[in-house]
Amino acid sequence: MRVRFALNGEPVELDVRADETLLTVLRRDAGILSARESCGIGVCGACTVLVDGRPTSACLLLAPLADGAEVATAEGLGPDHPVVRAFAEAHAFQCGFCTPGMIVAATALLAESPSPSDAQIRHALAGNLCRCGSYVKILEAVRRAAA
Amino acid sequence: MRAAPEWLAPSSLEEALALLAERGDEALPLAGGTFLAALLNQRLIEPACLLSLARIAALGGIEGGEELRLGAMARHRDVELSPLVREGWPAVARAFGVVASPRVRNQATVGGVLADADYASDPPAMLCALGARAVARSAAGVREIPVEELITGYYETSLRPDELIVEVRVPRADRAVYRKFRTRSHEDRPCVAVAAARRGAETRVVVGAVAGRPQHFPELCRDGDAAEIGRRYADAIEPIADVRGSAAYRKRVIAVEVRRALEELAT
Ligand SMILES: Cc1cc2nc3c(=O)[nH]c(=O)nc-3n(C[C@H](O)[C@H](O)[C@H](O)COP(=O)(O)OP(=O)(O)OC[C@H]3O[C@@H](n4cnc5c(N)ncnc54)[C@H](O)[C@@H]3O)c2cc1C
Ligand code: FES
Ligand code: FES
Prior knowledge:
By secondary structure, chain A is of the alpha+beta class. Helix content of chain A is about 35%, strand content about 15%. A five-stranded mixed beta sheet of chain A has the order 2-1-5-3-4, sandwiched between helices. In chain A, β3 (about 50) and β4 (about 55) form a beta hairpin. Chain B has three domains: about 5-50, Uridine Diphospho-n-acetylenolpyruvylglucosamine Reductase, domain 2 (2-Layer Sandwich), CATH 3.30.43; about 60-170, Uridine Diphospho-n-acetylenolpyruvylglucosamine Reductase, domain 3, CATH 3.30.465; about 175-265, CO dehydrogenase flavoprotein, C-terminal domain (Enolase-like, domain 1, 2-Layer Sandwich), CATH 3.30.390. The complex binds flavin-adenine dinucleotide and FE2/S2 (inorganic) cluster (2 copies).
C-alpha cells in the first residue's frame, strides 16, 4: 500500500506493508539513519522521531498511521541547529547511539516550553535511555540550548 | 514471507462497525498501535486484517459536564494535559500522565489501554475507583460496561468481537487519588497501583497491577482506619509474582500503599 507524508518538510510517497513500522520504512526506503532500532518495543527511545511535532517511537508506529503526518528526524535539523550545537558543545554523548533520539525529544520539549526547569527536562527525556550514561551532560546540553 | 495484512481505514464509525460485524473474526481493531505494533514486531500475531480507527473523528475528543467523556481515540497525553480533566478530574489526568514515557503517551489511546486489559496498566484501576463505564457499540446496538466488569482477567475483556469501545464516561468524585509504586525505573509500569475515590459517604479503593484484573473489595472499606483497611486488602489479595516484585513483597507494599492512599484521600 502507498503512504504519503511530509519528511523533514519534503513530501514522500512510499510503498509499505500494513504491518511494517515507520522505523523500518524510514531506514530502508527514505535514507533516514538517525532513527535507530535498539529495543523495538517502545522502551529505549533510540528510534524517536517527531510526528506532527510529538516525540514518537518510530518502532511502535505502524507505517500506514503516518499517512498525512509531518514527520521530523534529526537529519532535518542540520549541524547549526541550536540543540545540535548544544549537544556537541556540552559533549553530551559517548558512543552517540542515543543522540538523535535525545535531540529530537529535546527540540519538542523546547518548542513547548522554551525555558524548561531541570525537572521538566528530566520528565521529557525519561524513557530516552543512554547506555553510556551521559545523562548529566545531556541535561546540561538541553539547558544550554534553552539559554 | 507471510502475507501482509489488509489495511482497512474507514472514516465513519458506522462503516467500522459494519466491517466488524462482517469480518469480526479476522479484522483486528487498531487504535494507537503501541500494544499491537510490539506484538507484530515480535511476530506474536499475524492478523489477516487491521482495522484502523485513526480516521474516525467521532472517536476523538474530551468533553466535560456532569460526567467526563473521554473519546476512545483520545490519547493519553491529551488526557494528561487537558485543562478540563486537570480541573474536574485531576486524579484521572495523573493516572494517564504517569504512563510510560511521553512517547508512549503521545500514541496510546483511552480505548486501547482498556481493551488490551494489561494487568500492569495505570488507568484501569483509577477508572474503576471512580465508577467509570465504557460505552461499547456494535452494528446491533450500544451498551455501557462498568470498567470493573469490562476487564475480566489477564488480557481479557467482556467485549464481543463485533464491539468497539467508543467512549469512557467518568463520574465526578469529591476527591480521588492515584498512587503508582514502581520498583525499577521512572517510566516503567507499576508494581502496585492504588486508586482511591470518595463520593459522599462512600469510599472506593482499587488496587491495580497485582492480579489479572483490578482488585476492589467494597466490603473492606466500610469501617476501620487507613492502616486497618490496608492490612485487609493485603490479606484479601493473592498477588502475582513478576519481574517487578514477588508475591510476598507485593502484599507488604499493598498494605502500605493502600494506607497512604487513604491518608492522602483524607487531606
Ligand atoms: C514501552 C511501553 C511502556 C508502557 N508502560 C505503561 C505504563 O507504565 N502504564 C500503563 O498503563 N500502560 C503502559 N503501557 C501500555 C500502553 O498504555 C498500551 O500499550 C496502550 O494503552 C494501548 O493503547 P493503543 O491505543 O496503543 O492500543 P492498540 O495497540 O492500538 O490496541 C490495543 C488492543 O486494544 C484493542 N482496541 C484498541 N482500541 C479499541 C477500541 N476502541 N475498541 C475495542 N478494542 C480496541 C486492539 O484490538 C488491541 O487488542 C506501555 C506500553 C509500552 C509500549
Ligand atoms: S527502538 Fe523504538 S523505543 Fe527502542
Ligand atoms: S551516548 Fe552511547 S548510548 Fe547514549
